[in-house]
Amino acid sequence: MYRLIEQDGRAKSGEFTTVHGTIQTPVFMNVGTAAAIKGAVSTMDLNAIGTQVELSNTYHLHVRPGDKVVKKMGGLHKFMVWDKPILTDSGGFQVFSLAGLRKIKEEGVYFNSHIDGRKIFMGPEESMQIQSNLASTIAMAFDECPPHPATREYMQDSVDRTTRWLERCKKEMNRLNQLEDTINKKQMLFGINQGGTFEDIRIEHAKRISDMDLDGYALGGLAVGESHEEMYRILDETVPYLPLHKPVYLMGVGTPANILEAVDRGVDFFDCVYPTRNGRHGHAYTNMGKLNLMNAKYELDDRPIEEGCGCPVCAHYSRAYIRHLLKAKEMLGMRLMVLHNLYFYNHMMEEIREAIRNKNYKEYKKQKLEGFVRSDMESE
């Protein structure tokens, strides 16, 4: 259940109550694709850096270790030792990214495993069954993430199919939640809005899925090659047609600036691999922009990644030491970078929630963005 606490313009902050705890929004979900954050970050670490929601991936866990294995181990929460909410992505985006290995039909998608090449079929019912076995807090509906660019005709056909698949997902989830051996009988379902950069297709689809009274709504098929400006335009046009009193999730986005702009357009939930992936490659997020610790100028820099940062990394380690670890390819270097970056994202979301609830979000956003830009110019 979602309770809207405050609105500041289109920006909104609320509480989303689930069987695994209450999520304060806006929220950034820390991405642990295969039930682990890349960079040797444990669930104890996630608790220490203020993580509210962990996100895992249906396709990857189905392929390895197998969703039935996870079910036998008591579900994803027990398996990975995490007692807070987990969202599982439906596998639709992975199918999209496996373009060379797939065939889309009305019943679902036939494709080959990226690990051993074996043939896999996944449709709406299979995706719901896998996610039910995983016993996540929130399951995502199975959809097609159309390529960008796509023709109008392709996009309309794809969106219509995604709507039919959503109806099948809802029906199957209702069935699964009533079975005796289902681990999480209160699993929630989010539907996904598609339509590429065609405003009218997006709006019509938003209206259709809103009528289905789901637990939440996501915007998919963005950040797949279109410009930031196009993405913001689609959010401006589409979000008003999604229910105000339900969470709105922008999938796979993004940079701190993307998040600030999307919050201003009414988005509640975010996820992205940037803080972990960039961290593993030596890029640290700060209020003064992104630092590349591989640069020679940090070789003798005894300051923390960011002065005043409350993360466990900045409390103890210098830029020089972390740079040394990264250069030496020591796993600790990646771990420290990922921890700092996830803390930065989680803490920024706390600031965002506070700014909205204090009704000064526009000013907060302006100051934050100016900090990023100023520093990027200085560090070039």
TrEMBL record:
Cofactor details (free text): Binds 1 zinc ion per subunit.
Catalytic activity: 7-aminomethyl-7-carbaguanine + guanosine(34) in tRNA = 7-aminomethyl-7-carbaguanosine(34) in tRNA + guanine
Organism annotation: Variimorphobacter saccharofermentans
Pathway(s) the chain acts in: tRNA modification; tRNA-queuosine biosynthesis
Pfam family, one: TGT
Protein name: Queuine tRNA-ribosyltransferase
Keyword Glycosyltransferase among UniProt keywords: yes
EC class of the enzyme, as a word: transferase
Family the UniProt entry places it in: Belongs to the queuine tRNA-ribosyltransferase family.
Cellular component terms per the entry's GO annotation: cytosol
GO biological-process terms attached to the record: tRNA queuosine(34) biosynthetic process
Region (RNA binding): 252-258, 276-280
Gene3D superfamilies the UniProt entry points to: Queuine tRNA-ribosyltransferase-like (3.20.20.105)
Assembly and binders: Homodimer. Within each dimer, one monomer is responsible for RNA recognition and catalysis, while the other monomer binds to the replacement base PreQ1.
InterPro entries from the UniProt entry: ArchSynthase1/Queuine_TRR, TGT, TGT-like_sf, tRNA_ribo_trans-like
Keywords recorded for this protein, A-Z: Glycosyltransferase, Metal-binding, Queuosine biosynthesis, Transferase, tRNA processing, Zinc
Domain tRNA-guanine(15) transglycosylase-like residue range list: 10-370
Phylogenetic lineage: Bacteria, Bacillati, Bacillota, Clostridia, Lachnospirales
Cofactor dependence: Zn(2+)
Binding residues annotated for Zn(2+), in chain numbering: C309, C311, C314, H340
Active-site residue list: D89, D271
Signal peptide, first to last residue: none
SUPFAM superfamilies, sorted: tRNA-guanine transglycosylase
GO terms for MF: metal ion binding; tRNA-guanosine(34) queuine transglycosylase activity
Listed EC numbers: 2.4.2.29
